[in-house]
Design goal:
The C terminus is likely disordered. A hairpin with a 5-residue loop joins β11 and β12. The chain is built from four helices and twelve strands. The protein folds into two domains: about 110 residues, Nucleic acid-binding proteins (OB fold (Dihydrolipoamide Acetyltransferase, E2P)); about 70 residues, no CATH class. By secondary structure, it is an alpha+beta fold.
C-alpha cells in the first residue's frame, strides 16, 4: 500500500509539472507568433518526395507530421485520424497519397521511420482539453482517436511509439494501461493493424 501511495503521488506530481510546462509553452508561443505559429512552422518544413500523375490519379509522396501529411509541394494533406491511429503512424513516416479521379484519398505507408517505445503518463490540458503523454521529461501530443479507442483517462500509463533517431512533437499510442477499482493493472487489447491499402477515405 505505501508503494501504491508513493506511485500515485509521483503521477500527480508529473501531471502538475506537465501542466505547468504547457502553460509556459503557450505563453511563449503567444509572444512570438500566436496560435498559427505551429501550423506555419509545419508548412515551412522542406519535405522530400514527389508529385506525379498516373492512370490511378494524382500521386503525392510526403511525410507524416503526427497529424497530417506534408507534401513536397508545400501543401498539407489531411490524414484520417482513425487510420493514423490504427496504423500507429509515427511522425516522420513516409506516406504515399493517391487522389483518385472520383476525389477519394488513399494512403499507403511506404517508408516507416525507425521507432522506439516509451512508457509515460496520460495528461489533459484543462484549458485546451488536449491529451498529452508525459514521458522521459517531455510532453508528447497524441491523437484523440487513439485515446478514445482505449478509453484513456488522465493518470493512465501509456505505451507510445516515437522516432528513435530524431526529436518529435507527436507520439503514436500503442497501448494504455488502466487501473481497475477491483484488481491492480489491466491492459487494453490493442487494435488490429489496418493495412495501408485497406484505408479509403470517401468524402
Amino acid at each position: 500500500m505505501p508503494d501504491e501511495i508513493t506511485r500515485l503521488a509521483k503521477i500527480k506530481e508529473a501531471i502538475e509539472n506537465a501542466q505547468a510546462n504547457l502553460q509556459i509553452a503557450r505563453q511563449l508561443i503567444a509572444e512570438i507568433g500566436g496560435k498559427e505559429l505551429d501550423e506555419q512552422l509545419a508548412l515551412n518544413i522542406k519535405v522530400e518526395g514527389k508529385v506525379a500523375e498516373g492512370p490511378e490519379g494524382k500521386i503525392i509522396e510526403g511525410q507524416f507530421d503526427g497529424q497530417n501529411m506534408l507534401g513536397p509541394d508545400g501543401k498539407q494533406y489531411s490524414v484520417p485520424a482513425n487510420y493514423a491511429s490504427k496504423s500507429k503512424l509515427v511522425e516522420g513516416d513516409t506516406l504515399k497519397l493517391t487522389i483518385t479521379p472520383d476525389g477519394s484519398f488513399v494512403y499507403k505507408q511506404i517508408g516507416p521511420i525507425e521507432r522506439q517505445r516509451l512508457i509515460g503518463v496520460l495528461t489533459r490540458d484543462e484549458e485546451t482539453n488536449e491529451f498529452r503523454v508525459l514521458a522521459n521529461n517531455k510532453s508528447y501530443r497524441v491523437l484523440l482517436a487513439s485515446i478514445t479507442y482505449f478509453k484513456g483517462e488522465p493518470g493512465d500509463e501509456v505505451v507510445i511509439l516515437v522516432p528513435k533517431e530524431k526529436d518529435s512533437r507527436w507520439a503514436a499510442v500503442e497501448n494504455i494501461i488502466k487501473k481497475t477499482a477491483s484488481a491492480g493493472l489491466q491492459t487494453e487489447t490493442p487494435p488490429n493493424p489496418v493495412g495501408p491499402d485497406e484505408m479509403k477515405d470517401l468524402t
